[in-house]
UniProtKB/TrEMBL annotation:
<keyword id="KW-0560">Oxidoreductase</keyword>
<dbReference type="InterPro" id="IPR004113">
    <property type="entry name" value="FAD-bd_oxidored_4_C"/>
</dbReference>
<feature type="domain" description="FAD-binding PCMH-type">
    <location>
        <begin position="36"/>
        <end position="215"/>
    </location>
</feature>
<dbReference type="InterPro" id="IPR016169">
    <property type="entry name" value="FAD-bd_PCMH_sub2"/>
</dbReference>
<keyword id="KW-0274">FAD</keyword>
<dbReference type="InterPro" id="IPR006094">
    <property type="entry name" value="Oxid_FAD_bind_N"/>
</dbReference>
<dbReference type="InterPro" id="IPR036318">
    <property type="entry name" value="FAD-bd_PCMH-like_sf"/>
</dbReference>
<dbReference type="InterPro" id="IPR051914">
    <property type="entry name" value="FAD-linked_OxidoTrans_Type4"/>
</dbReference>
<keyword id="KW-0285">Flavoprotein</keyword>
<dbReference type="Pfam" id="PF01565">
    <property type="entry name" value="FAD_binding_4"/>
</dbReference>
<dbReference type="InterPro" id="IPR016171">
    <property type="entry name" value="Vanillyl_alc_oxidase_C-sub2"/>
</dbReference>
<dbReference type="Pfam" id="PF02913">
    <property type="entry name" value="FAD-oxidase_C"/>
</dbReference>
<dbReference type="InterPro" id="IPR016164">
    <property type="entry name" value="FAD-linked_Oxase-like_C"/>
</dbReference>
<dbReference type="InterPro" id="IPR016166">
    <property type="entry name" value="FAD-bd_PCMH"/>
</dbReference>
<protein>
    <submittedName>
        <fullName>FAD-linked oxidase C-terminal domain-containing protein</fullName>
    </submittedName>
</protein>
Length: 485
């Protein structure tokens, strides 16, 4: 046992500290393909905030970096360990602490699984909208760290829009309360909002108070459209937005992804066209009927080869399930690297065309899924296992697509986070003055530099090594990555 592990055992207890190399391997990285990672000195599985505080205080004293981990479903490498670091896994802090029906809030520990929270509050007639594709596995703490999105976010917003307050452990182990539990509050800087999306670089969140919405009870109206090309589908999305319609979901999945789902689940979805658009309206009654008809009209006006309103709820649910299954279906074909850029909706057709051009230029197979309604694209790079030349081409295409998104006024990440994979693009997007502002905030809140250094923006990077075998093994059968949204 290393010296740091012995010290940790003394302050939090032997049952909370893991040092077995084989067990620690499963905690050492998230699902980001090709993101480097190292071997931690120890994994701490805290029972409560006091354990987290004691761990951070000791690491601050010794100058040992710490990285927070939820379910490990991230796609940027933000939760990856480095040799000699301490990983703090929040799997045991998984309780819903309170559901307040008057305030319509829920207070939870970070290890609560997204879908478990949604199921729990539904019993009280409440709904938590952020729904990443990994919702059956990803945790609220991880969702907060990456400001996760999901299918509903085109209408209902992302994680940050629902975080009211939090408890967090900061740079010397001190425990602070940020934000509020009231419906309104403008006291001081929004330090709570600053923590959301910080990817573990500023502190460790140990409790979160989330805003809920009333549970939706009506029937959603689903519109299905097949298109002959990605750009045609992109124009249809732009037309829906220009018509003033805000669907409750609008998802894109191309034929290559549909074929992968069909090969896995035999759903028969890939025969109608090159690209499938799925849209939903959750407006009640006649308003929902009218909104669905307007979406359908936009699809047809923009050249859909087949477009229809689905009248079968089971069929509609199966189509959206196919969208969620696209990532694991492609992952069965080989190592899979996923992009996550967001562009203005008017630029969506052009961005989809540029992705196709990059695939041709670099001779790289790229599948496409997207939260098309808010311009959030997820190109998926499929590389044959062990083909180093193909891997290099895919990585080059990845960087070119990042630059293309920025050229169109977009951002390098819509929901997966920067982590290790997007630091070059993030630095270019922010510019040197804004990067300096990030450094200033980091230095102020983490003066000892122990929280996840070397991630998100340029910072001294510790000894990382490439993942063994060039791929990822899942810690749970069928588990989907956090950002596969």
């Amino acid at each position: 046992m290393s010296g740091i592990a012995e010290r940790l055992t003394a302050v939090v207890g032997e049952e909370q500290v893991v040092t077995d190399p084989q067990i620690m391997e499963g905690y050492s990285h998230d699902e980001a393909e090709w993101a480097p990672y190292g071997r931690p000195a120890a994994v701490v599985r805290p029972r409560d905030t006091a354990d987290v505080s004691a761990t951070v205080a000791l690491c601050a004293e010794l100058g040992v970096p710490v990285v927070a981990r939820g379910a490990g479903t991230g796609l940027s490498g933000a939760a990856n360990a480095v040799d000699g670091w301490v990983v703090v896994s929040f799997e045991r802090m998984n309780r819903v602490l309170e559901v307040d029906l008057v305030q319509q809030t829920a207070t939870v520990q970070p290890g609560v699984v997204n879908d478990d929270l949604r199921e729990r509050v539904a019993r009280d007639g409440l709904w938590y909208p952020p729904d990443p594709a990994s919702a059956p596995w990803s945790t609220i703490g991880g969702n907060v760290a990456t400001n996760a999105g999901g299918l509903c976010c085109v209408k209902y917003g992302v994680t940050r829009d629902y975080v009211l307050g939090m408890e967090a452990v900061m740079g010397s182990g001190e425990v602070v309360r940020l934000g509020r539990v009231t419906a309104k509050g403008v006291t001081g800087y929004d330090l709570c909002g600053l923590m959301v999306g910080s990817e573990g670089t500023l502190g460790m969140v140990t409790e979160v108070t989330l805003r809920m919405r009333p549970l939706r009870t009506g029937v959603e109206h689903t519109v299905v459209g097949y298109f002959g090309s990605l750009t045609d589908a992109g124009r249809a999305v732009a037309a829906v937005s220009a018509a003033g319609v805000v669907p409750s979901a609008m998802e894109l999945i191309d034929r290559f992804c549909l074929q992968a789902v069909d090969a896995w689940k035999n759903m028969g979805l890939s025969a109608e066209g090159e690209v499938l658009l799925l849209a939903r309206s959750d407006q009640p009654g006649a308003a929902g009927e009218e909104e669905a008809e307007r979406i359908l009209s936009c699809f047809r006006d923009e050249g859909a080869v087949y477009a229809v309103r689905s009248t079968d709820q089971e069929e509609a649910e199966a189509l959206f399930e196919a969208r969620r299954l696209a990532y694991p279906a492609l992952e069965r074909l080989g190592p899979l690297l996923t992009e996550d850029m967001c562009v203005p909706k008017a630029k969506l057709p052009e961005m989809l065309g540029r992705i196709e051009a990059a695939a041709e230029r670099f001779d790289t197979r790229i599948g496409n899924i997207a939260h098309a309604g808010d311009g959030n694209l997820h190109p998926l790079f499929i590389v044959p296992a062990g083909d180093e030349a193909a891997k290099k081409r895919a990585q080059e295409a990845f960087e070119v697509i990042v630059d293309e998104a920025l050229a169109l006024g977009g951002t390098v990440t819509g929901e997966h986070g920067v982590g290790l994979l997007k630091m070059r693009g993030a630095a270019r997007e922010m510019g040197p003055d804004v990067v300096r502002m990030h450094h200033a905030v980091k230095n102020a809140l983490d003066p000892r530099g122990i929280f996840n250094p070397g991630k998100v923006f340029a910072w001294p990077v510790c000894a990382l090594r490439p993942p063994a075998g060039g791929g990822r093994s899942r810690t749970r059968t069928g588990q989907m990555p956090n950002g596969a949204a």
